[in-house]
Amino acid sequence: MQPAHKTPHSVATAFLTAPVRLQTYKNLAYLALQFPLGVAYFSLLIPALTVGAGSLPLLVLFGLPVIGALLLGVATMTVDRAVTGLLLPVELDRHTATASIDDGAVTYAKDLLLDPGTYLSVGFVLAKFVVGVSTFVVLTVTGSLVAVAIAAPFLYTSPMGNYTFPLPSWLGGGTAVVDTLPEALSLAVVGVVGLFVVVNLWNALAWLLGNATAIACRRARVLGSAPTVSNQA
Predict the structure, then answer these.
(1) Model confidence pLDDT, tens digit, residues 114-138
(2) Cα(85)–Cα(106) distance, rounded to whole angstroms?
(3) Which pTM was predicted?
(4) I need a labelling partner for 39 at 20 to 30 A (CA). Which of 7, 23, 138, 167 fits?
C-alpha cells in the first residue's frame, strides 16, 4: 500500500493536535525511558563484555563468559524491542536463532557466535547509552524552557523567578528583563507557541528512534524459539 501524501491541511492538523493525542504521551514515555534503559544496558553489558573478552584466549575451554555476555546483549535487545513495540506504532521484525538449545549446547553456541545479528544487538543496545543521554538533554532543556515561559505571569514577581535573558549581539547585546505583567503575558504566549513546537519535536524524535529500532530489528537477534520448518510440500 502506498502511503498517503499529506496535504498542508493534514500537516497543520497534526501539528495543532499533537498536545492532545494519546500517542504523543506514549512517545514522551518512550523518550523518557531512553536514559534509564541506556544506563541499565551499559551497566550490565560493559562488565559482562569485559569478562567475556578476557576469556577469549581460552575460548575453547572457558568460553562461557563470552556466551553469557552475548546472550545478555541479545536479551537486552529483546527488552528494547518489546518497549518500542509497546509504546510506538512501528512494525518490528523478529530475528531469532536458527538453532535451538534442543540441537545441543555446542550447536546453539556456534549459532550465537556466528550470527552477525548477535553483534548488531550488542552494538545497538550499547549505543542506547549515548541516545539516552542525548534524549534526556533534549527533554530537559526544551521542557524547562517551555515551562518557564508559560509560568512567567505567575512567577515573574516571585523571588524564585529570574526572568533575565541575555540578548544576542545582533540585537545589541545586554540583557532583557521581564518585570511587568504585559511582558510576562507576552512571554507566556511565546511559551504556548513553543509548547506546540516542542511537542512536535518530541514526536519527531520518537518517530526517528522508533524507525531506527525497526531497521535494526531486521537483522538484530532477539530471544525466541528457532523457526520451525514445515514438512509439508
Answers:
(1) 899 999 999 999 999 999 999 999 9
(2) 32
(3) 0.85
(4) 23
